[in-house]
Specification:
37% helix; alpha+beta; 3 strands; globular; three-stranded mixed β-sheet
């Protein structure tokens, strides 16, 4: 539930003409919890994003890795059209695996932690529950065309990935500005609390909420 994916979802809810589907019955928001997400993400989702999702009855499925082994699959933490809680506690957390194996997140690519605690469980849930044609939509922004090009070498159940932000020409800054303008809050980068790749903004201890302007012309 980071900056880019949240910007896509909020625009789809607030601007019907931007949606690539007829109604929200055709949309599933699927997220995998590592068990170590920063507190700001939980606060932002529960106080700003989820009220909108409840209003538009958007289905949110939260899953998590069941154990260190891929064979054990995933746990469904929540599946609802009325989300109230972001289950950042996960189930078998990434930090637990790191402690048990005596290692740290890998600095080089590929980022195995994201692949194992997010990619594998997302793919497994999709395989188990989705049979008809679908997106899937990814939140790569307009500055990440090279990254999107690499992702195009893979498919999800034979379907090519789609990139709304690249289609709109939106950069990460555009997404932050849009969320600032529509939700009146500065959206933080989603990351594990100890992630070596997170930006300085994500490590800030406080969420910066922008007060609504008093001037009616704004």
């Amino acid at each position: 539930m980071g900056v880019e994916s949240t910007a896509i979802l909020v625009r789809w809810m607030l601007e019907p003409q931007s949606r690539p589907f007829n109604d929200f019955h055709n949309l599933i928001v699927l997220t995998a919890q590592t068990g170590d997400e920063i507190d700001e993400t939980k606060h932002l989702c529960e106080n700003y994003l989820f009220p909108l999702m409840r209003e538009y009855k958007v289905r949110l499925v939260q899953i998590a890795k069941a154990s260190a082994s891929k064979r054990d699959g995933y746990i469904i933490l929540s599946d609802t059209h009325q989300p109230y809680e972001l289950h950042t506690e996960g189930y078998f957390s990434l930090s637990r695996d790191l402690l048990q194996s005596g290692t740290v997140p890998r600095l080089g690519r590929p980022h195995i932690c994201a692949q194992r605690w997010k990619g594998e469980v997302l793919d497994a849930w999709i395989t188990d529950h989705i049979t008809k044609a679908f997106g899937p939509y990814l939140g790569y922004n307009a500055d990440e065309t090279k990254r999107a090009g690499k992702a195009d070498g893979y498919t999800c159940q034979g379907h090519q990935f789609l990139y709304p932000l690249i289609e709109w020409g939106w950069t990460r800054d555009d997404c932050i500005e849009y969320l600032y303008r529509t939700l009146r809050v500065l959206w933080r980068k989603s990351a594990c609390s100890y992630c070596p790749f997170q930006q300085k903004q994500a490590r800030s201890p406080a969420t910066v909420v922008i007060p609504k302007p008093q001037d009616s012309r704004c």
